[in-house]
Structure formats: structure tokens, C-alpha cells
Design brief:
- With 183 residues, the chain is an alpha+beta fold.
- It is built from five helices and twelve strands.
- The model has no long low-confidence stretch (mean pLDDT 93).
């Protein structure tokens, strides 16, 4: 049976109907983004970030840290799965992805297969949606790019990554070297 290629314009509903074949399917402004399962180094960083952010958010009480798979969608032609993200607990409490629309922090861990989409396509979408803080974790360059909605260029962090959640009195501080360590 011949393989049927997706149409040039893809919708969020079409992505939701994609097969569960181990790939991650996303769509941004109608462009289908397909990436393979992440590598172990990627997953280690996801776990470290999730633990640190969850601990921080639990102390605050009104925020929740989440990881993909997720179906974050702001329109019919967008559906993304950020690696790690923080949302208001009230939105997450609903239990439906459709209710999760206010992302306060988004983290994407760059890999060879996702770097272009994460760094350009998805980052621009996140900026357009007004997500206050976007972290692009670059393993190869051993740094984190920090973006805000109005940035034209990122702040490149090699040492201490800082995030102050809305309404928090104290910021979360993470050492980039610890975050990116190989063990």
C-alpha cells in the first residue's frame, strides 16, 4: 500500500488523528512538524527541569509544571507539545487540554531533529502568543537561550538560569552545567 503524504496545510484536528507511532506530531500555522522520540540526554534534561520547576511551583501553590505529550492549541492550525511548561493550576485542573491556554514558561530542549522547528517556528509562535518566558536548551552549545515576546535576539545563559514566576517573591535559579550534565 503506498504511503499517503499529508496535505501541505494541516489542522490541529488532523494532528490529533495521527497514528501513535512513536513520532511527535505538531502543527504551527498549518505546517506539519514531525519529530522522532527524544534521545536519553533530552529526557534527562526534561526530568531535571520538571523536578526543579515542580518543586518551585508547589511552593507557590497556584502553578503547575507539565510535560509532553500535550495538545496545546490556540487555533485550528496550531497544536504544539512543549517539552516542559508551566501553567496556572486552575487551567490544568479542568483535565482537558483545551482549557490549557496560558503558558507562563515554555522549555524546548533542542536536538538535531527538532532544533530548526523549536528555535524558529515554535519560538515565533510562543512569542506571538505572548508567553512571558521561553527557554531553548542547547546541549551542543552548552547554554540556554532565553526569549521573551518582544525579543529579536535571545539572552544566552551559560551559568545561572533564573525564572521569577508571576506573583512570586523569590526566583528559581538553575545552574546550566548541572542541568546539562551527561550522567
Amino acid at each position: 500500500m503506498p504511503m499517503v503524504l499529508p496535505a501541505a496545510y494541516t489542522t490541529a484536528d488532523a494532528v490529533r488523528a495521527m497514528p501513535d507511532d512513536g513520532n511527535r506530531y505538531e502543527v504551527v500555522w498549518g505546517e506539519l512538524l514531525v519529530s522522532p522520540s527524544p534521545r536519553p540526554a533530552h529526557q534527562r534534561i526534561v526530568v531535571r527541569l520538571t523536578v526543579a520547576l515542580s518543586t518551585y511551583c508547589e511552593r507557590l501553590g497556584d502553578l503547575e509544571t507539565m510535560v509532553s505529550p500535550a495538545d496545546i492549541s490556540w487555533s485550528d492550525d496550531t497544536l504544539v507539545q512543549p517539552d516542559v511548561f508551566v501553567v496556572p493550576r486552575a487551567e490544568a485542573a479542568d483535565g482537558a487540554w483545551a482549557a490549557v491556554r496560558t503558558l507562563l514558561l515554555v522549555v524546548e530542549i533542542l536536538s538535531p531533529s527538532t532544533a530548526r522547528h523549536d528555535r524558529f517556528t515554535k519560538r515565533r509562535l510562543y512569542q506571538e502568543q505572548g508567553i512571558p518566558t521561553i527557554w531553548l536548551v542547547d546541549l551542543e552549545a552548552a547554554c540556554v537561550e532565553v526569549w521573551t515576546p518582544t525579543d529579536v535576539r535571545p539572552v544566552i545563559v551559560h551559568d545561572t538560569l533564573t525564572w521569577l514566576a508571576p506573583g512570586a517573591a523569590q526566583s528559581l535559579q538553575l545552574h546550566v552545567g548541572e542541568l546539562l550534565r551527561s550522567d
